[in-house]
Amino acid sequence: MADHRIVAKAMNDLADDWHWVVLRDAHELEPRLFVARTVDTVCGILIDAGPTRVRLYDTGAPAEPTCPACLEDGFDRGLRAQISEAIEAAEALPLAR
Ligand SMILES: [Zn+2]
Question: Less crowded by CB within 10 Å, the N or C end of the chain?
Fold first, then answer.
């Protein structure tokens, strides 16, 4: 089973940021209805220790979160690892003279 990532609010609070909410080990029971082992956000808010059922609705969520910590991590991890390796390799090169 795979993680399923959506943009949503962690709390029923209009002032809350939009986060990447991750349905861990999610299994789709029917369209838009999932069972997840745990539900949390990328920035570390545990929403439901689960297992739990989650029905997705159209909440008018933006395509990207507004939470800075979630946005930071929304970057593809593999790609970011490659970028940081490239930066390290560049730093390790001796300066041309
Ligand atoms: Zn967040």
Answer: C
Looking only at the bridges linking them, the beta strands covering 2-9 and 46-48 are: unpaired
Closest listed residue to residue 5, CA positions, set 18, 13, 14, 16: 18
C-alpha of residue 37 to centroid of ligand 1, in Å: 19
- Helices within the chain (DSSP H only): 68-74, 77-92
**Spacing, Cα 24 to ligand 1 middle (Å):** 16
pLDDT mean by block of 10 residues, the chain; 97 residues? 88 80 93 93 91 87 90 66 68 68
Note if the pTM is more than 0.85.
no
Q: What is the 3-state composition of the chain as percent helix, strand, coil, each rounded to the nearest 5? A: 25, 35, 40
Residue 97 C-alpha to ligand 1 middle, in angstroms? 45
